[in-house]
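Researcher: I'm preparing a figure for a lab meeting and need a structural model of a single chain. I don't have an experimental structure, so a prediction will have to do for now. The sequence is pasted below. Please return the structure as tokens so I can convert it later.
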Amino acid sequence: MAGFILWEGASLYDGKPIVVIATLDSRNAKTGSMIQTWILAQDVNPIEASRTGQDSSICGNCPHMGKPSDKATGWAKERSCYVNLLHGPLGIWKAYRKGSYPKATPAQIESLATDRMIRIGSYGDPAAVPVSIWQALVRHAKGWTAYTHASANPLPNMLMTSADTLVQAESAWDRGERTFRVVSSVQELIRGKESLCPASKEAGQRSTCESCRLCNGALSKAKSIAIVAHGNGKKYVGASL
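Model: Understood. Here is the structure written out token by token.
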């Protein structure tokens, strides 16, 4: 199978129906061959959800969602999220609506990622989903990467706390959480606290997420991770923070 439905239910952010889909193959050169997980609105395609602000069901109040647009097409204004909705999310949502993905049993969820790396939240915030889903999924996994913009990280030992400012990062560090921070330049990194993402262009892409395995929350005792803003929304990073 190309993928499975891991969970369908009410978003923990706003109670609207969302779905979690795992796809088993990936051509993403940065992440490597990881299982990808997609958190999507059930009834609204990702582009419309972004344009109308309905992506809050899956992204909470993440500042990178941008601002709702009054246009008839396209996504949100000033959207700084690095995920290109036309690539993975839209195609996976369409396949879901066609019934292309079977629903995984509890046993399948636990065995799906055996000895493999998982990308938790390839799109969407893991905090929108019951923590039991992620805990079951990683039970036999080799490792994972995961990030949340939630104001209170529900699984700090699994999820990196996404920080958009140094003040936010320092607050998370005081709580014992590791952070993943988007910065404008390498010079912004805090010596002794942060390391540059080794899969990033600025670091020479000397690793992939699959081989690095550092973005696994406070489970790792490594430094927090930072990456220089990239992707289609790079010019908007920081504009609404």
